[in-house]
């Protein structure tokens, strides 16, 4: 195995093609006390930067369109602020996403109590793998893509007494696509409730949100109570795409899923750039979507989810894994 001209992570399970075909590299770098993994494509500069010891998050994602390399994710700018972040920037949300009121849920006739970790201690929010140390698995470098696999095992955690192996695969393709794929495997003896989501805040250059349009692939919005817990559904009737100027979103949508995927578009006409967030849909896949515009209005959170908010209680979209069974799904980002 020849590695001439490239520095690869000194870890097992690396597969690479012959050197003359390599345009990708995978390497380590320091971000303060944090150790990051970088997938980079030489000819375009496309890259993603992953932090295994902070819940496996993608801290940076840069994709090129034409002569411009766009940095697409807003995350805290320093190591300390990243560690201290409470806004879940780019975090993986598993085995549940969004809120569970009072941290209480009932599953198969039994009641469970999760830690109430939302600001104000009213609810459990965004799962149990945030800020956790993930394990680096296989690294793959091929002529047309490179990927890193990270994993975290959940074993008899507070409020979630199930054994589930969770993994995420980050892949950068030569055609400019970035793909986040996840898999969950029930490694225990009892059925386990499963929900997954991703929580990125997206940027398009230095523009503010009010300069953009968004195309949300949904005709139905979840109706929330004052605690942001679903109480029903109602039609979502807006232009497609719709201007974000003076509009504020903090909503969950049931996505249109007539095919096996749905695409949200974030559009900057001034820069002639569109970010496409494609989520797999269909049975067990990403059939829900949260859109949130933070008060600073310098980014938009677009969060594909496999189930509705509070699905651990309502069952809406919830995947229930029997012993030895698995579930997976993918989210794909690209620029046009």
From TrEMBL:
Record Gene3D superfamilies: 2.70.98.10
Top-rank taxon: Bacteria
SUPFAM superfamilies in UniProt: Galactose mutarotase-like
Pfam families: Aldose_epim
Molecular-function annotations in GO: aldose 1-epimerase activity; carbohydrate binding
Keywords: Calcium
GO biological process: galactose catabolic process via UDP-galactose, Leloir pathway; glucose metabolic process
Cofactor dependency: Ca(2+)
Claim: Calcium is one of the keywords in the record: yes
Protein name: Aldose 1-epimerase
Species for this entry: Dyadobacter psychrophilus
């Amino acid at each position: 195995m020849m590695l001439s001209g490239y520095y690869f992570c000194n870890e097992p399970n690396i597969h690479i093609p012959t050197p003359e075909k390599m345009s990708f590299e995978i390497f380590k770098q320091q971000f303060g006390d944090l150790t990051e993994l970088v997938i980079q494509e030489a000819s375009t500069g496309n890259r993603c930067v992953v932090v295994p010891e902070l819940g496996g998050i993608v801290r940076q994602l840069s994709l090129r369109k034409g002569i411009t390399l766009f940095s697409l994710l807003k995350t805290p700018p320093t190591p300390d602020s990243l560690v201290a972040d409470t806004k879940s920037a780019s975090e993986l949300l598993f085995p549940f996403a969004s809120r569970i009121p009072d941290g209480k849920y009932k599953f198969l006739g039994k009641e469970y109590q999760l830690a109430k970790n939302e600001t104000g201690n009213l609810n459990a929010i965004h799962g149990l793998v945030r800020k956790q140390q993930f394990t680096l698995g296989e690294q793959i470098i091929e002529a047309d893509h490179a990927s890193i696999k990270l994993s975290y095992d959940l074993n008899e955690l507070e409020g979630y007494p199930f054994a589930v192996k969770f993994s995420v695969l980050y892949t950068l393709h030569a055609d400019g696509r970035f793909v986040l794929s996840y898999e969950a495997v029930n490694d225990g003896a009892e059925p386990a409730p499963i929900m997954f989501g991703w929580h990125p805040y997206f940027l398009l250059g230095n523009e503010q949100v009010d300069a953009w349009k968004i195309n949300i692939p949904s005709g139905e919005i979840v109706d929330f109570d004052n605690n942001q817990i679903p109480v029903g559904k109602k039609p979502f009737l807006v232009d497609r795409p719709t201007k974000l100027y003076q509009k504020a979103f903090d909503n969950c949508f049931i996505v249109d899923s007539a095919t096996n995927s749905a695409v949200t578009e974030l559009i900057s006409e001034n820069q002639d750039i569109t970010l496409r967030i494609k989520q797999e849909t269909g049975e067990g896949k990403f059939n829900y979507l949260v859109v949130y515009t933070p008060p600073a209005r310098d980014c938009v959170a677009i969060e594909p989810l496999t189930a509705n908010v509070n699905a651990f209680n309502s069952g809406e979209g919830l995947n229930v894994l029997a012993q030895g069974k698995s579930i997976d799904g993918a989210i794909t980002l690209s620029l046009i």
